[in-house]
Amino acid sequence: MKLVSMLLVAALLLAGGTLLLASPGQEPTGPVELIQWTHEDPNRTPLEEKWIAEFQQQNPNVTVTRETSPSGKIQEKVLTAFAAMKGPDIFNMEAEDEWQYIVGERVAPVDLDAIGYSSYKALQNDYLPVTFDGALYEGKIYGLPLEITNWCIYLNDKYYREVGLDPARDYPKTWEQMITVAEKLTLREGEVIKRRGFDFRYPYYLSFWVPMANQLGGKVLSADGKSAAVNSSAWIKLLQYMADWGPNGRNLGSPTYTNARKTFNRDDGSVAMCISGLYQYDRIKAENEAFLPEVSIVPYPRFKDAVNKNGSAVYGHYYMVNASSSPAAQLWAWKLTMYFSSHVEEMLDQIGLTIPSKKLLETAVYKNKKFADVFIEDMATAKFVMTHEKGPQIQDVLKEMVEGVMLSNVAPAEAARRGQEKIDDILRQ
Amino acid sequence: MAFQRRQYWGWIFVLPAVLFFALFSYFPIINSFIASFHAKDILSLKAPKFIGFQNYIYIFTSKDFLNSIKATLYFAVGCFIPLVSVSLFMATIVVSLRRFPKVQNVFKMIYYSPAIVSGVVSATIWLLIFDPRGLANQWLNFLANNPTPVDFKWLALPAMARLSTIIIYFWKYVGYFVIIYFAGLVSIPTSLYEVAEIDGASAWKKFWRITVPLLKPTIEFVLIVAFIQCIRTFSIQYVFVQSGSPREPINVVSLNIYTTAMQYHSLGRSTAMSVSLFCFILIFTIVQLRIYRSERVSYV
Predict the structure, then answer these.
(1) DSSP string, B110-145
(2) Which residues lie below 8 Å from residue A309, measured CB to CB, with a gap of 6+?
(3) Is B2 part of any domain?
(4) Domain identity same for A220 and A348
(5) CATH of residue A191
(6) Do A20 and A26 form a contact (C-beta atoms < 8 A)?
(7) CA separation (Å) from A133 to A10, A106, A177, B195?
(8) In this structure, are A374 and A294 located in the same domain?
């Protein structure tokens, strides 16, 4: 009996000790293995690997395994893993995809003690106001920024000059001008496009397309958020614009072509303009440095009769921590992600990723970064990308609307009506 | 006693396979049946909620699922008929080369090689061919002698997207069925053809009176397998949709199952679709087996 009591006490002490060791805010020294899943970014990989090595050296009890997936595949991979309760400790995706993990309580709020802050307000105060818009939910912050980005238009100056345009003066300021300029830059052989003047960034409809609707006064959801609002004149006008753009209209581009952003870097005569973030400039530098002098970047166009002068959406990637990870893993995961996020100058200088901390805006790195001002000025009028529990599903409906008018000859009014019906159905579920 | 011992060993030998199938096939199938009667968000930590037949009522009244049935039938019919007929024709050509075994082997290898390439890789290769600047447009413009190139919009127009997926599937699987038919054809005794020749039968008559009746078990197998494969098609349509093709015309049931689960997070509805597809395939297979069993022929 005595032996049993002693064993029981020992077990309780051990359990209590483990809990104490693993409680958030403390610094457990036992071995911790962290798994990080992130999207492929050849420029960021060496930097993060270097920081992981430094972090492991400073904290020998922590081992980090970093795994990458293509940016279009990581959503599926993370979702499948979380569905099976096997998600990584740290992951990142676009904010609009991460939001459902926050609402679904699958990710943990930022551990303020672990990152050395007294409150969420204090954390927010160190960054530009827009920074945490995609991670702030019911008063808590659920992610630390990997990048906060908006998109502008990249021009290949050489192709402008080839068709007698001056890139500094003739770049498109409005979406109406975009059609005219793109038409001049497009090269065709019969019906077959050899060079696109410009093309959209198709799967990311919440980031590039919803802001265009916003410019015309359109909104995705009603003011109370309970019903869709895509069956309006603004959306029908925008759908008509896309129909005119597509292969059955003026034949300027299509979702079926290779992503314009990818081929732009090669300067291989396939596209003259594309949409992207500041990071694209450093990717061109890494992939095809000789092309860099021919690249210029201009603000996101606005419609001529725009009622709102917003630019493209601001979106972010946040490092998030799995709420199912052990308390010790969560603690060290926040410490590691804060270590990543604290390298704001290196991120901007070497790979063009902006973490808009107030400290960064005062640095020479920011002030000397070519084209950073174009993005930051456009960001001032931009709204954060729509974050909604059903955001990815709504984006899927927007995709169907665009494909319908561009490829399947669906009338814009009919596409808007169908979109309204489908989004309402999603919201009802 | 010895017989009983042999039986005992037989059970031991098949046990691993039975356990494997029970764990990796039967358990998920039973689980799917159960899940189809529940509402469950794939990402939610909440327990599934029993909702009876609501998932089935929803999918069978949803335009989206009815469109998927239509898209699947378009694809299955468009692919199934050429697959089973052309592969038989190609197999007879290969068999006729029996006096040139090396040439015969080369043909078999050429026909079969696409079948070992994964669906995703096949679709990716063909995406390059169907690109506006790709070989498909170039060949057709050359054959049609078009003065200025026409873009046939292989990936963009609904009808062309359907046709493109059928072409890829046909290319990928025709060789597989050629090999199956080939195995059936070579098992027909040559003496029957020799006798028919002595009786003055034409090649056409020999094909219809000897080859087709004796090949019935193989034809039956090919019909069932080809149809099931066509109905279950997924990867080609998935790659097309990922590459920007319009989803509606090629939104086959398997793709809809995937989208409903992975994009719309509705595990209950996606399993209801899976169960419906499973039942359809099961009924089709039983009916087809019954029809063919009553028509077996033997000349031996």
Answers:
(1) HHHGGGGS-HHHHHHHHHHHHSTTSHHHHHHHHHTT
(2) A215, A302, A381
(3) no
(4) no
(5) 3.40.190.10
(6) yes
(7) 48, 18, 32, 85
(8) no
Last residue of a domain, one of A356, A379, A402: A379
β-pairing, A273-276 with A144-149?
unpaired
Give the tens place of pLDDT for each residue, B26-49: 899 999 999 999 999 999 998 999
Cβ of B246 within 8 Å of Cβ of A408? The answer is yes
Question: Which are the contacts of B198, defined by CB distance < 8 A and separation ≥ 6?
Answer: none
Say if residue B216 is exposed, middle or buried (CB neighbours under 10 Å; 0-12, 13-18, 19+): middle
Asked, for residue B25, whether it belongs to a domain, the answer is no
Same-domain pairing of A190 and A256: yes
Contact between B86 and B226 (Cβ < 8 Å): no
Does the beta carbon of B259 lie under 8 angstroms from any beta carbon of chain A? yes
Q: CA distances (Å), B18 to each of A87, B13, B25, B34, B278, in order? A: 31, 10, 10, 22, 21
User: Which residues of chain A make contact with B137, given a CB cutoff of 8 A?
Assistant: 192
- Ramachandran angles phi, psi of B192, nearest 5°: -65, -40
Q: Which residues contact A361 (CB under 8 A, 6 or more apart)?
A: A128, A376
**In a domain? residue A423:** yes
Q: The complex's ipTM?
A: 0.84
Q: Number of folded domains in chain B?
A: 1
Neighbouring CB atoms inside 10 A of A425's CB total 15
Residue of chain A with shortest Cα separation from B150: A191
Is there a single domain that holds both residue A299 and residue A230? Answer: yes
Work out the pLDDT band at B297, boundaries 50, 70, 90.
low
Predicted pLDDT at A22: 44
pLDDT, tens only, B170-215:
999 999 999 999 999 999 998 998 999 999 999 889 889 999 899 9
Contact A105 B43 (CB under 8 A): no
- Reported as a single tens digit per residue, the pLDDT across A165-184 is 999 999 999 999 999 999 99
Task: Assess if residue B12 is contained within a domain.
Answer: no
| Residue A373 lies in domain | 29-150+315-379
In a shared domain, residues A38 and A140: yes
3-state helix, strand, coil in chain B (%, to 5): 75, 0, 20
* Three-state DSSP class for residue B24: helix
Distance of residue A373 Cα from the nearest chain B Cα, in angstroms: 33
Q: How far is B51 from chain A (nearest CA, A)?
A: 13
Best residue in B31, B40, B45, B130 for a mutation probing chain A (most A CBs within 10 Å)? B45
Contact B247/A400, CB-based, under 8 Å? yes
- Cβ–Cβ gap A76/B146 under 8 Å: no
Pairwise CA distance, residues B215 & A261, whole Å: 54
Same domain, A348 and A258: no
A19 is a domain residue? no
Residue B17 CB-density burial (10 A; 0-12 exposed, 13-18 middle, 19+ buried): exposed
Same domain (yes/no): A350, A410: no
- The CATH code of the domain that includes B187 is 1.10.3720.10
Domain boundaries, position B95: 46-293
